[in-house]
Sequence to fold (730 residues):
Amino acid sequence: MLSKTKLALAVSLAWGMAPTMVCAAQTPDTEGTVTRLNEITVSSTRTERRVDKVPNTVTVTPAAKLEQQGVRDIKDLFRDEVDVTVRAAPTRFTAAGTSTGRAGNEGINIRGLEGNQVLMMVDGIRVPNSFSFGSFATGRGDFLDVDGLKTVEVLRGPASTQFGSDGLAGAVSFRTLDPSDLLKPGQSISGFARSSYAGIDRSWSNTLGVAGTTGQWQGMLLGSYRQGNEIDNKGGNHAQDVNRTTPNPVDYNNQYLLAKAFLAADPMHQIGLVFETQNRKQSTDVYSARAVPPLAANSTLDLDTRDRIDRNRVALEHRFNDLNAQWVQRAETRVYWQDAKVSQFATEDRNTAADRTRDNSYSTKVAGFSTLLESNLTGILNQRLTYGVDWSKTEITGVRDGTVAPFGETFPTKPFPDTTYTLGGAFIQSEIEVRTLSIIPGLRFDHYNLSPSSAGYVGGPTVALSGQALTPRLGVVWQLAPSFAPFGQLTQGFRAPTPDQVNNGFANLASGYTSIGNPNLKAENADSIEIGFRGKIEGVRYSVAAFDNRYRDFISQQAVSGAATPSNPTVFQYINLANAHIHGVEARAEWQMSKLWKANAGIAYSKGEREVNGVRTPLDTIQPLKAVFGVRYDEAMWGARANLVYSEGKEASQISTSTAQFAPPSYTVLDLGFNWKPSRNLSVNANLNNVFDTKYWRWSDVSGLASSSTVKDAYTAPGRNVQVSARYDF
Fold:
């Protein structure tokens, strides 16, 4: 159960202040520290609804906020969210051992679940999954470039009824800019140029976007380039060996291009073509991998790495809108292709042992389509039906290569067989409006199939796997009064097994262990309930929500047989092992104190545990209580803002392992921002983050670090840093 103190704190944040407030403005705030509660979302129901009229919790972050805060990546994007985090450990990996930090921005954590249990999409197309095998680890966050984004929507709770597999914890929808977002009224050509500097990694970024229209055509071309270095921390040891706590030297650059063209064939039909490409390169001098004397034969003298991420996407879209059509008033169809690849190369100089290299890659090629139809029915009940199908076919491959292979292996080798991963689903949803009551039932059927190829795979016999899932959802929103509107939903979710879990072949008989596939692996499942209420009282908009999520059949790699000897090796296999339970409460509030002053706040607390063979332990992916308080002042020509973030320390009793882990203390960080518009077309933003140069650790980044570690400072968050940008619109 949640503690009464923390529950009361969360509720009172949004409710208790209300009698003191004054009238709030009705215009949407795209720049506050907490998203306004009347933004439009399309992820909750796959139709346009205001976020205060959906049956669950959704936040929408617009491009204006990203630009004002100087957001560089998704780690920056979610730093002020109370229930969303991004794990990014320091780059302290080795050539063939640990993978700490190699995956970059690993993925998104929503309400205590993370990684591949969170669905991530760009314009409705899935971001590739993360993957790890020994020192080889790929993340998901660096497949994204924030410079081309229009909005970011975070949907809490299982999202399978809307989107199918993977959204156990929720879904994050990244929507890119359209030509209409750059075009200005009365102009045939419009655009912007922006340049920025971020002290956190000494990076420079330049972006140019141009849109044009002629006749029935609209087009847009946007390109950006960012170049930077290692992310700062509060470490003080500059030793070029394992004792180092300052960041290892990093050089990276990121190139991004987004092109769109739309043809309005007639007032009802629009056809669009989208091309997106991203290339990210990073080189690292891993001083922290170097050994200290006395040196063993295989001690590392030097380690240098070169990593690369590529993602290319092409999509053809058709949009239909006709409110007077008899059967279908809206339709959207998308056919797409995406090719993404992560390559990681390392060269290691060893003392007297043979030097070695590692050259690993993980790639996904997906082709798919989706169709969504909308029909509005009138009669006794006002009803909007949404229905459609989604289908995708993904080719997933992984290769481990290099020199001086581990004992018993020969390079190149595949950590799992090349696999064709097919997902198909059909859904239907009804939005029924009865006066002040909205009832939103939905149902989806999904089928998945994993078909491996044995070509080039030496990890043992391959196994195919297929399955299906039926995921219902029922949501309710009751606009009882402007000051009090209850909402809630019951929903289910599932996540199909990934190719590397179904077939994971590796053997080291000399060391007495091996791994095998599992043809009986089941999908992970979720049952979720969320209830809450929203409203506006004398100008305060608020939202309070409580949730209870129960998960079944979590997939985990375990020893299933064997005695750890060459003749009877331990056999590892991915099996459905654990169940989990996460519950919590959140609150958000917004206050227009006067015409020029605004304030907002948010708080979230959750608790979770997992159960294995009847034994319950804390779930380490649960984040400590977090609160955000912001205030801003805006005039026509300039504005200023202050944002205070507080995070409770991680309690040792809420860490699972019996081996003592580092439990970071609480912290409070103040950020300041300033914006200035010296002319109609020119705008300048400046941010001073961590004003008091506070030394602190984020639990999301240090989870798993031993309390006895002598390099804890290497995991600290950045100290005081500045960010500035200038944008010219034309």
